[in-house]
Design a protein that fits this description.
Distance between the termini: 36 Å
Shape: globular
CATH topology of one domain: D-Amino Acid Oxidase, Chain A, domain 2
CATH class of one domain: Alpha Beta
Number of helices: 16
CATH architecture of one domain: 2-Layer Sandwich
Strand content: 15-25%
Largest sheet: 9 strands, mixed
Structural class: alpha+beta
Helix content: 25-40%
Radius of gyration: 23 Å
Length: 543
């Protein structure tokens, strides 16, 4: 049995867990992070991609609004490469109660959320597809954020400080002695091996699974409520700014431009099991109806994909256990020493990706105080790898890179010269062969869903119908896996894609699904290939 020893063990590879790993490593702790899946494969990878200004919470949850307003500028600076600063609008739709917009102005002013009221005609010039009947409009500092790019940027920063990243390691037990956790007992899911992680402190950042993790240490009263939210991606950007309805937070109130698509979200319904999130067709229709209010003709665009995410909400006794919409969105940090007698365990629950860095800072402050570490937090000052230039992501970046590559090829190569590194493998997302092979060199055991999260392969209109087979072939030719392994990874990937397709099979999307099915079952005969062992993504079906 393998064993490693660290000062701090972090459970959970979402934005908060990775943020804790980075912060602790920067303060001089030795750190290891374990997650039962890939980074960002849980809640962090299943949201609508909004970098919050705080405007959504200025009336319903002012403390969260203040946190978002504070962190917005920090995230945009230290994660510039993961953030597209589109700007945002809060608009009052034709049937919205204008009295709320007056409350919103007061709340935003009090919370310190920067905004400016503009005329409806100016808003429509900025976003021509908006409902022409809007009654008020406010600009805010919002944008789109790639959760996976953010998480990997923070992870690589932590690794630069010596942190160890152990994905696909499931915590199956803990060793407790003298009022504290001595070690985590983990299972390496990919290699079917056991690992002991001896540690001085444990941070439970497992999101909707945090209650289960706490229970392993005998802390049985950590009541985490899973708030399931359904989102729908449309096949192109209907707007170029983040659009919010200026109403009390409700279902389908936000439309976010995300890379080459836009995302409408979200519903909020209690779910019992974060490992089994359904995507009800009526909630998909509800999102399409909500989009129609913001952008008339929304339903005429092609609905590309639906998915569900699980908000980890700490149960507030003042609110019904089923009323997830009205539970606070702020962070809850539990020091299990005075609460449960487990002195070196801290749990962090709730919050948002936009405030992940602040949550991590507050958690590591507790750990540092217990350890006698006086090194200050520096995560707000130091940018992550890949964002050193300070230039924000633009939706045209990949197209520009492809054009540069073709121009260089035309100058340096004869017409007969093959340049496979510059080949576009995924036309929808303009992913090149070089991008794929570089990541395969770094992570040869990555599943195709792991690759998708970092490269966006298969996230365009064909949903992997064409590029997935190319990825499988390249993985074999590059020596990353055998043909049998590539087959298993391909079928896992297609299973994962299918879960988000079936709730909206109509029109062009139904035709695309039929074409993909003919390719996979007819040309490739994929249903008669050898059996394979699935992995968690085949069940979850992320964005």
């Amino acid at each position: 049995m393998k064993e490693i020893s660290v000062d701090v063990a972090v459970i959970g590879g979402g934005s908060t867990g990775v943020g804790v790993m980075r912060d602790a490593a920067m303060r001089g702790f030795s750190v290891a992070l374990v997650d039962k899946g890939d980074l960002g494969s849980g809640t962090t990878g299943r949201f609508h991609g909004q970098l919050h200004s705080g405007g959504r919470y200025v009336v319903s949850d002012p403390p969260s609004a203040v946190e978002c307003a504070h962190e917005n500028k920090i995230i945009a600076r230290i994660h510039a490469g993961a953030v597209e600063m589109t700007g945002g609008l809060f608009i009052s739709a034709p049937d919205d109660d204008l009295s709320y917009s007056d409350q919103w102005v007061t709340g935003a002013t009090t919370a310190g959320v920067p905004f400016e009221e503009i005329s409806c005609s100016d808003a429509l010039r900025r976003e021509p597809r908006l409902n022409p009947g809007i009654k008020r409009a406010f600009t805010v500092n919002e944008g789109g954020v790639d959760g996976w790019k953010l998480v990997w940027g923070a992870a690589r920063s932590a690794q630069d400080y010596g942190a160890r990243l152990l994905t696909y390691h499931c915590v199956v037990g803990v060793d407790i002695a003298k009022g504290g956790i001595r070690a985590l007992l983990c299972r390496d899911e990919k290699h079917d091996e056991s690992l002991i992680v001896s540690c001085g402190f444990v941070v439970n950042a497992a999101g909707p699974w945090a209650g289960r993790v706490a229970a392993l240490a005998g802390c049985t009263d950590v009541n985490v409520v899973c708030g399931r939210g359904v989102m729908v991606a449309m096949n192109h950007r209907l707007v170029n700014s983040v659009i919010n309805r200026c109403v009390w937070p409700g279902d389908g109130g936000t439309l976010v431009p995300a890379h080459t698509v836009c995302v409408i979200g979200t519903t909020d319904v209690r779910a019992e099991d974060p490992d089994n999130l359904v995507i009800p067709r009526d909630e998909v229709q509800q999102m399409l109806d909500a989009g129609e209010v913001l952008v008339p003709g929304f339903r005429q665009a092609r609905a590309l994909r639906a998915w569900a995410g699980a908000r980890p909400l700490f149960h507030d006794s003042r609110v019904s256990g089923d009323d997830t919409r009205h539970m606070g969105r702020g962070m809850s940090i539990i020091d299990h020493g005075p609460r449960d007698g487990v002195d070196n365990l801290v749990s962090v629950i709730g919050g948002k990706l936009s405030t992940y860095r602040l949550m991590a800072e507050k958690v590591v402050d507790i750990v540092a105080r217990k350890a006698g570490n006086t090194t200050p937090c520096m995560t707000a000052e130091e940018v992550v790898p890949g964002s050193e230039s300070g230039r924000h992501y633009r939706v045209t970046d990949r197209l520009a890179a492809c054009e540069r590559a073709r121009a260089e090829t035309s100058i340096s190569a004869s017409p007969q010269t093959s340049t496979p590194d510059n080949q576009v493998i995924c036309e929808c997302e303009l992913m090149s062969r070089r991008m794929l092979t570089s990541l395969l060199d770094e992570q040869p055991e990555a599943t195709f869903d792991d690759l998708r999260r970092q490269l966006r392969a298969g996230m365009g209109p064909c949903q992997g119908g064409f590029c997935s087979q190319r990825v499988a072939g390249i993985a074999v030719t590059e020596g990353a896996c055998s043909a049998a392994d590539a087959t298993a990874r391909l079928r896992d990937f297609l299973t994962s894609r299918w879960k988000g397709l079936w709730p909206l099979l109509h029109g062009e999307q139904a035709r695309q699904a039929a074409l993909n099915n003919w390719i996979q079952r007819g040309t490739l005969d994929i249903t008669h290939l050898p059996e394979f062992k699935g992995h968690p993504d085949a069940e979850h079906g992320g964005q």
